[in-house]
Amino acid sequence: MNTKENKSLYKDNGKLDLEVLYEKKPLIELAGKQFGCPASVSMELIGGKWKSVILSHLIPGKKRYNELRKEIPLLNERTLSMQLKQLEADGLVSRKAYFKKPPLKVEYALTELGETLIPLLKTIIDWGILIAQKKGKFIE
Predict the structure, then answer these.
(1) pTM for this structure?
(2) Class of domain 49-135
(3) Concatenated DSSP letters for 11-55?
(4) Residue 36 phi/psi, 5° resolution?
(5) How many C-beta neighbours within 10 Å does residue 62 have?
(6) What tens-digit pLDDT sequence spans the chain (140 residues)?
(7) What are the boundaries of each domain within the chain?
(8) Quick one: how far is CA 135 from the chain centroid?
């Protein structure tokens, strides 16, 4: 058997050996699904039209549901609600409800895992601005 095939994905210190990971390209299992590469895993969690938009609006800090609705006017209520539930289930967004004073107050924020996306989201935003400048236009 090839020594490449015998290499563990983990170093002696228990950390993932990225070099071996890139060589072996093992399947990844997440939430009962199998993925052929890490990019597919990433897109499972943040892909789609609205997830990265919602996440990017949470970069500055926690927001109430209605704040998100006002900041993302092209997103309808049903979709916002569904996407927030999915992002919460995936551990990227936290939801905190306050019941003491009416009206009910619900705040959403990035979790610790969600915060690891901030550099990526900022890069996506910057790239979107570049594309808008080169191929589109900003509507005031």
Answers:
(1) 0.86
(2) mainly alpha
(3) -TTS-B-HHHHHHH---EEETTEEESSHHHHHHHHH-SSSHHHHH
(4) -85, -15
(5) 13
(6) 334 444 688 898 989 998 888 888 889 999 899 999 899 999 999 999 999 999 999 999 999 999 999 999 999 999 999 999 999 999 999 999 988 877 788 999 999 999 999 999 999 999 999 999 999 999 98
(7) 1-36, 49-135
(8) 26
